[in-house]
Amino acid sequence: MARNGSQRTGEKYSGHQHKSSTKGNFHLNEDFLVFSFKVTPCNKKYSHDWASCPCSHVGERATRRDPKRYHYLPVACEHAKQRQECPAGDKCPHAHNLFEYWLHPMRFRTEMCMFRSKCDRPVCFFAHSRQELRPLEAGLPPTELPMSATINVQTI
Ligand SMILES: [Zn+2]
Ligand SMILES: [Zn+2]
Ligand SMILES: [Zn+2]
């Protein structure tokens, strides 16, 4: 089965590590990344590599709650930060993993990618030009790097 796909997902998309990979080039536009990536349930019936599939899978830790249906903020959930299961579950008003955090419509591409135009990540949470850069809404706390570091290793 594709269970071990969830482990690889975290490595491949981790926000602050650069791994060059030619696999899984999705050519995804911004709307798809923000509203569908790892939100839409996968309908493939066969075993496949979850990390290179843009859909969500049962048991995959990268799976996101649909930002249009669930009203959570791109702010790290205290329970997720401690790697504990959140008692509020889907009703929690905060992000439970790196993907819910960075792909959230209010957080996506609000910071510059350190690789700029040389970035070859198939899915990158950051902006590659001034045109791509989006303003961070007033009232949102700035990026919490400790959260992404924790999540990279353990939660996804
Ligand atoms: Zn899939
Ligand atoms: Zn929570
Ligand atoms: Zn990038």
UniProtKB/TrEMBL annotation:
Zn finger (C3H1-type) start-end: 72-99
PROSITE patterns hit by this protein: ZF_C3H1
Top-rank lineage group of the source organism: Eukaryota
Residue segments, region Disordered: 1-22
Domain annotation C3H1-type: ranges: 72-99
One Pfam family hit: zf-CCCH_AtC3H23
UniProt xrefs under InterPro entries: Unkempt-like, Znf-CCCH_AtC3H23-like, Znf_CCCH
Keyword line: DNA-binding, Metal-binding, Zinc, Zinc-finger
Name listed for the protein in its UniProt record: C3H1-type domain-containing protein
Provenance organism: Tetradesmus obliquus
